[in-house]
Amino acid sequence: MADSHIILILDDEQMVRENLEAFFEDEGFEVRTASDGEKGLAIIATGEIALGIIDMRLPGMAGSEFILHAHAKSPHTHFLIHTGSTNFKLPSELKDIGMTSNDVFIKPLADMGVLLAAVESKLGSA
Fold first, then answer.
1. Biological process GO terms, please (predicted)?
2. C or N terminus of the chain, fewer CB within 10 Å?
């Protein structure tokens, strides 16, 4: 399944981007990365992204704002939130586009398998 899906990792922390990129590439996914929302939207505009793993605190555009813009450009793309904010609450605007608390992951993850399972679940329903 993985070889037909491209994942976007949007995080302003280089080490987080590189670690997630290496992990998902090892799992057989093709990965694109971006450090801010504007670069992420340019990647979304290609139409090739099946799923985005999005940090919430980004320079310029917040992650939730990015997801709303990206969803408008590419409604078929799925999103997961990967945030360091332990008190993060899913905004109603993201609930309105179908996201749930099951789409939110708090950094650092002790078990990357949980994130992998969520990615595979979302892409299995794509």
1. phosphorelay signal transduction system
2. N
